[in-house]
Write a structure and sequence with these properties.
134 residues, alpha/beta, Transcription Regulator spoIIAA, 6-stranded mixed beta sheet, 3 helices, 6 strands, globular
Length: 134
Amino acid sequence: MRVSFDDDGSIVLRIVGEIDLATVSVLRDALNSVPPTDAARVVLDVSGIDFIGAAGVRVFLEARQRLAHARRDLVLRGPSPMLMRVLEAIEVDREFHIEQRPGAPTRMGDPGGEDRQPRPRRGDRETDGDLAGA
């Protein structure tokens, strides 16, 4: 894991390899050691992640919550299609700011949930028209 700073002062942690039960403690320790600075954002450059398990996603969520309490944002930069599928499958993709590349606008998952539309649950169906006659 490498730590650097963006031009705007954001702290950037570059994560490479697999995040599973064997490596998640390293990720947790790194995120817990992010220094308290004036930086409004902590960026996780996740473009080098080859695999992430549930434990790794849980650490991301814990870090997002901790940073939100400190009025700081957690940004996932450069997630692969695999990582996005994992986040979407467990319905946490909207919990994070997503930045596809440095300097690009973030796609906000709206961590506060104020203007997020609820997702239909599995098995729920949307229908058009009047069901009174059905």
